[in-house]
Each structure stands twice: as structure tokens, then as C-alpha cells.
Amino acid sequence: MELLKEKILKEGRVIGEHILKVDHFLNHQLDVSLLNAIGRAFKERFGGEEVTKILTAEVSGIAIAAITAQYFDVPVVFARKTSSFNLDKETYEGSVYSYTKQQLYKFRVSRHYLPENEKVLIIDDFLANGEAIKGLCEIVASARATLVGAGVVIEKHFQGGGNKLREKGLNVQALVSIASLTKGQITFLQ
Amino acid sequence: MELLKEKILKEGRVIGEHILKVDHFLNHQLDVSLLNAIGRAFKERFGGEEVTKILTAEVSGIAIAAITAQYFDVPVVFARKTSSFNLDKETYEGSVYSYTKQQLYKFRVSRHYLPENEKVLIIDDFLANGEAIKGLCEIVASARATLVGAGVVIEKHFQGGGNKLREKGLNVQALVSIASLTKGQITFLQ
């Protein structure tokens, strides 16, 4: 997705060898026109599939999923990260290990919003080591719903999570894949 | 907004005398068609004003703000609740007292995304005691930006926060106002 690559090169900031900050348009400020282009791109990638619900995780996935859902004409459900929130007690859970924070946490979705007959497309902002997507897949599996695939805006391909998920048979579509962030330089996968 | 009232009566759940759960369409699952109707309604309410940015707070405001921003053709910035997130160090802060959790926390927005010349419309899901909107107003004031007003989807009018803000001169627009939740009954303000 050329528009997104340009945006990343112009406004992204590399921190160390692993972090790409895109607060300018995706993670703190939201460029809503760009989100619409992202939504259309996901529709192109998954347009051949039947999708009845989009599943994402708080916080950064929410805006992307909501705008994208307009192109699929389906509802979104977002997994909550904490147990403290006033969720229904009946939830499906997925485990996510955060390498950044070195701790395991849970994603939770109320059972009401993932009945067995749903055809679920997972949408998220980043795919690095694949932990967040894996946690969302666990939720879909617990719900015995059908997993259509996972669409991510930016894959940090060098961290290997995307290919691990693909090897398990998941249809993972990244709108942009990054081969390396070495020496402050953003190199896209060819 | 009649559509929203119908939705609340049909799918909202009253807990105690103060809590209205709308997880079915606004706070956990997102009804994206309804969010579009909400966005159009905010545009009607604030269409006469110049707005250059929409400000909201994570988590529940994000989807509403992103969909609404399409009708204003402006970017969104969402305030972060925790300090742990990898935000720029240069932030504007607002304080929010949570009556539910009985603790004070901070909203933070990077200074990059609120320059002085912005004309800011605040959007949020609920307005109860007004603490969240007050915290967002503090951020706009710190940035010396212009505060256009605040649009909320559901005002719990009986908790008084909306009128406190209106008395201070803020243009607060609620799409639906609730007069009482007594005895499990949802009564709208006439």
C-alpha cells in the first residue's frame, strides 16, 4: 500500500531496532482519511470471504476496526485487556505475552458477542511477534467461531510472528511489511 | 435521537441506580451503522462551528470519535489514560477523578497534536459527573487551543456533570439525556 509506505517514511519514527512509532496517524492521532484507505485495502484483501464480525483488541485496533467495518457492513467487537472492566462474567479469554512489558496478560471478550456461527476477521495495527493476534485467535477458537483471517496494518516481518501464524494456516494479510529498522532506517519487504 | 433511544431501551442494561451498560452497541461490541448515525447527529449539532480536530479519551471514545471525524473531515487525537504508554514526554495533562474506582488519574496528549491554533471538539460516550470531559477541557486549555464544545452520546443528566459544564459556558450537546435509572427503569429527559 503505497500511501501507507509514504506516510510511514514521512511521519514514522524509529526507536532502537524494533520500535516504529506511528503516533502521528495511527496510534495517538488518527488520520481518518488514511484509515478509510486502510479499510478499503482490507476489503480488497478479504472481499472474497464471508465475514460477519470484526474482532480487534483495545486500544490501538479500535479505530482501524471501526472504520474498516464500514466496508464489510458488520459489527466490531474489541477484546478488553484488563479484568477490572465491568465486563460480563461470561467471557472468552486469550493469553498475550508482552515482550515490551515482560508480562502475561489476558484479552477478554463477552460470550454474547461471539456466537458459534460467526465468521470472524481479526484486525489490528501491528504484527510483530504475533502474540496479540495469537491471543485473539484463542478467543475465536474458544468461541468455536470460524476464523476467516487476520489483517494488520503494519507487519514487522523481521520479528517473525506473521510467518509463525501463516505456518499454522492462518490467512495473514499485512498492508505494509517491514524487513528491518536497523540503524534508524525503515526498509520495506520487497 | 430516536434511533439511539430505541437502541438503549432494547439493548441497554441498568445496573443499580447509576450504571447503564451499552456493551451491545457502544462499549464492547460496536454497531457501526449506529455510530455513523451518531456521527451525523454530532455534525448537525456542531455543523455551524469551525472544527479542526476532535479530541476524545481512550478507550470508549475512540470508535465514536473516529467515525464522527469523517463527517467533519478532521483528524482525531485520543488522550491516553496511563503514563506507562510510550508517549512523547512533552504532553498536556488533565486530571480525572473516577468515582467508580475512587482514584485520580491523568489523561495525556502529546503536545505535537494540539497546537495553539486548533479548534477542538470533544467527543465522548458518556457524560455522568463530568470528570472525563473536565479533564479533556484542561488539556485544551493547557494547549491554549480553542474549545468549540463537547458532544456526548449519552448524558446521565441526574448525575449533574453536564449542567456544571454548561454553567461554565461550555456548549455541551448530548444526543440522549437520561433523567433517571431508578428501579431498573430508563427514563429519558423530556
List the SSEs and their pairings:
The structure is a homodimer of 190-residue chains.
Chain A: H1 2-11, E1 13-15, E2 19-21, H2 23-27, E3 29-30, H3 32-46, E4 53-57, H4 61-72, E5 76-79, E6 91-98, E7 103-110, E8 119-127, H5 131-142, E9 146-156, H6 161-167, E10 172-180, E11 187-188
Parallel strand pairs in A: 4-5, 4-8, 8-9, 9-10
Antiparallel strand pairs in A: 1-2, 6-7, 10-11
Helix pairs in contact in A: 3-4
Structural features:
homodimer, 190 residues, alpha/beta, Rossmann fold, six-stranded mixed beta sheet, two-stranded antiparallel sheet, 6 helices, 32% helix
Outline of the structure:
With 190 residues, chain A is α/β, with parallel strands linked by helices. Helix content of chain A is 32%, strand content 34%. The first copy, chain A, has a single domain, classed as Rossmann fold (3-Layer(aba) Sandwich).
Give an overview in words.
The structure is a homodimer of 190-residue chains. The first copy, chain A, is of the alpha/beta class and 190 residues long. Chain A has one domain (2-188): 3-Layer(aba) Sandwich (Rossmann fold), CATH 3.40.50. Helix content of chain A is 32%, strand content 34%. The first copy, chain A, contains six helices and eleven strands. Chain A has helices spanning 2-11, 23-27, 32-46, 61-72, 131-142, 161-167, and strands at residues 13-15, 19-21, 29-30, 53-57, 76-79, 91-98, 103-110, 119-127, 146-156, 172-180, 187-188. In chain A, the strands form three sheets. A six-stranded mixed beta sheet of chain A has the order 5-4-8-9-10-11, sandwiched between helices. In chain A, strand 8, helix 5 (131-142) and strand 9 (146-156) form a beta-alpha-beta unit. In chain A, helix 3 (32-46) packs across helix 4. The mean pLDDT of chain A is 94. Chains A and B meet through helix 2, strand 3, helix 3, helix 4 and strand 5 of A and helix 2, strand 3, helix 3, helix 4 and strand 5 of B.
